[in-house]
């Protein structure tokens, strides 16, 4: 990443979550490969974390604690069946929160997905890769190994050129590690881009690929040193096939 | 373990015990942070019963997902407030309420804190931290505070803020940037502690 291309001026607003979609997309893409800006971002995120203290102090009703403890007991006893929201709900929430923010391409793709009820229905009952009427392909990526609770969705545009990966439930990594997507064909693994996830485990990547994405039958995500590796070196956390 | 012992534990240890399903640990975490969580939620949604629902949601979520907490990335209170803010802004958007620049208030003077229920050490730390943040914020211009309020408590983007205030987008961007730079400088050591 060229050093004159930093997104320094956008980082305060990005940390606050108030950048508009297009700029936020540019920041996400830049952060994926720039340690300097990631470190700078962390300082602004810490500042944001302090803003909570300016809310005037208020106290909830005394009964609330009893309700919280009862709800916690209930949640524990019904896990895992009803505990977590469905993937559609989570992606919808992700879009509303813009956390992480989306590149314009990814936003358009996923918005289309969310209005596609057919796809949601297929997802719960059908195969792990689905082609929509629009020609877009949707590939489920399942958590593997220690990340078995994670999930991912890779959306490939109708012309097979563009892709967006959305992940959920992946653990946040230390500053010197990032997730890396691999495009797999004939036993070869090609870099599809690196990404980080939020504290809540959400992440997104606008996939960069030398060849059309539809020409790769397999996809995987591994943990790598920040900035990525030429070929996989770390534990695999997600896997999917076209 | 008796209640008194839990009060002596640090936040990270409490979270580890919560991950092991120790209800007493959740109870202690609640006592320490419920006012912070509730105050934030209330300041976003403006309605006590919705703010209580969000507060309940946050603590239940912590109970269910304590294993996902990463101490190397954020302090427990930052983790809690980040979840709270997202939940609250989400709830605000669901109601479809129009952005109201007057709906949110800043507390700028160090308040006379009621004694908190949690351990005295945590309560003192929170009170000191809160006083420093409020002092730093009071140094911002009214215009800078206004854009921060709309971004932090109402979840508006910079263009939505520009529209709500009827001012050029470039002006909003500059105010956000300068306000955040000032706060980062004023709170640097605190925020990274
Ligand atoms: Zn940079």
Relevant terms:
heterodimer; A: 242 residues; alpha+beta; Arc Repressor Mutant, subunit A; Immunoglobulin-like; nine-stranded antiparallel sheet; 7 helices; 24% strand; globular; B: 193 residues; mainly alpha; Rna Polymerase Sigma Factor, Chain: A; 9 helices; binds zinc ion
Describe this structure in words.
- The complex is a heterodimer of chains A (242) and B (193).
- With 242 residues, chain A is an alpha+beta fold.
- Chain A has 2 domains: 1-75, Arc Repressor Mutant, subunit A (Orthogonal Bundle); 87-241, Immunoglobulin-like (Sandwich), CATH 2.60.40.
- Chain A has helices at residues 11-16, 21-31, 35-50, 63-78, 87-97, 104-114, 117-125, and strands at residues 129-131, 137-143, 151-156, 163-168, 177-185, 188-195, 203-207, 218-225, 236-241.
- In chain A, strands 1, 2, 3, 4, 5, 6, 7, 8 and 9 form a 9-stranded antiparallel beta sheet that branches.
- In chain A, α5 (87-97) crosses α6.
- The longest helix of chain A has 16 residues, at 35-50.
- With 193 residues, chain B is mainly alpha-helical.
- Chain B has a single domain (3-186), classed as RNA polymerase sigma factor, region 2, helix turn helix motif (Rna Polymerase Sigma Factor, Chain: A, Orthogonal Bundle), CATH 1.10.1740.10.
- Chain B is built from 9 helices and no strands.
- Chain B has helices spanning 3-8, 11-19, 23-45, 48-65, 76-95, 120-138, 142-152, 158-165, 169-191.
- In chain B, α3 (23-45) packs antiparallel against α4 (48-65) and α3 (23-45) packs across α5 (76-95).
- The longest helix of chain B is centred in the N-terminal third of the chain and has 23 residues, at 23-45.
- Chains A and B meet through α1, α3, α4 and α5 of A and α3, α4, α5, α6 and α7 of B.
- The structure holds zinc ion.
- Residues 6-7, 30, 34, 36-37 of chain A line the site of zinc ion.
- Zinc ion binds at residues 6-7, 30, 34, 36-37 of chain A.
């Amino acid at each position: 990443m060229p050093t004159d291309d930093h997104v320094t001026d956008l980082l305060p607003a990005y940390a606050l979550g108030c950048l508009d979609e297009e700029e936020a997309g540019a920041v996400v893409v830049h952060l994926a490969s720039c340690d300097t800006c990631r470190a700078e971002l962390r300082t602004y995120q810490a500042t944001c974390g302090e803003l909570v203290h300016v809310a005037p102090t208020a106290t909830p009703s005394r009964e609330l604690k009893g309700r919280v403890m009862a709800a916690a007991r209930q949640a524990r006893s019904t896990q895992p069946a009803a505990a977590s929201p469905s993937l559609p709900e989570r992606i919808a929430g992700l879009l509303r929160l813009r956390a992480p923010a989306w590149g314009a391409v990814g936003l358009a793709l996923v918005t289309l997905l969310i209005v596609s009820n057919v796809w949601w229905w297929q997802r719960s009952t059908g195969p792990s890769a689905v082609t929509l009427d629009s020609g877009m392909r949707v590939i489920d990526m399942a958590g593997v190994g220690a990340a078995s609770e994670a999930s991912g969705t890779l959306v490939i545009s109708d012309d097979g050129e563009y892709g967006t990966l959305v992940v959920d439930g992946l653990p946040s990594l230390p500053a010197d590690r990032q997730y890396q997507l691999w495009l797999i064909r004939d036993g070869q693994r090609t870099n599809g881009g690196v990404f980080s996830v939020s504290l809540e485990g959400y992440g997104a990547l606008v996939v960069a690929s030398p060849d059309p994405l539809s020409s790769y039958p397999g996809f995987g995500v591994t943990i790598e040193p920040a900035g990525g590796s030429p070929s996989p070196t770390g534990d695999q956390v997600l896997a999917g096939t076209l | 373990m008796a209640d008194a012992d839990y009060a002596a534990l640090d936040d990270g240890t409490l979270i580890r015990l919560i991950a092991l399903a120790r209800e007493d640990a959740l109870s202690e975490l609640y006592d320490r942070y419920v006012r912070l969580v509730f105050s934030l939620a209330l300041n976003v949604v403006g309605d006590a019963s919705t703010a209580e629902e969000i507060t309940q949601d946050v603590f239940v979520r912590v109970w269910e997902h304590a294993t996902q907490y990463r101490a190397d990335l954020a302090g427990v209170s930052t983790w809690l407030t980040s979840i709270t803010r997202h939940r609250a802004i989400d709830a605000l958007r669901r109601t479809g309420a129009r952005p109201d620049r007057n709906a949110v208030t800043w507390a700028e003077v160090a308040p006379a804190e009621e004694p908190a229920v949690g351990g005295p050490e945590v309560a003192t730390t929170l009170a000191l931290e809160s006083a420093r943040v409020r002092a730093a914020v009071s140094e911002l211009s009214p215009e800078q505070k206004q854009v921060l309020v709309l971004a932090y408590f109402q979840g508006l983007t910079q263009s939505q803020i520009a529209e709500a205030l009827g001012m050029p987008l470039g002006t909003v961007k500059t105010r956000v940037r300068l306000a955040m730079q000032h706060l980062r400088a004023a709170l640097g050591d605190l925020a990274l502690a």
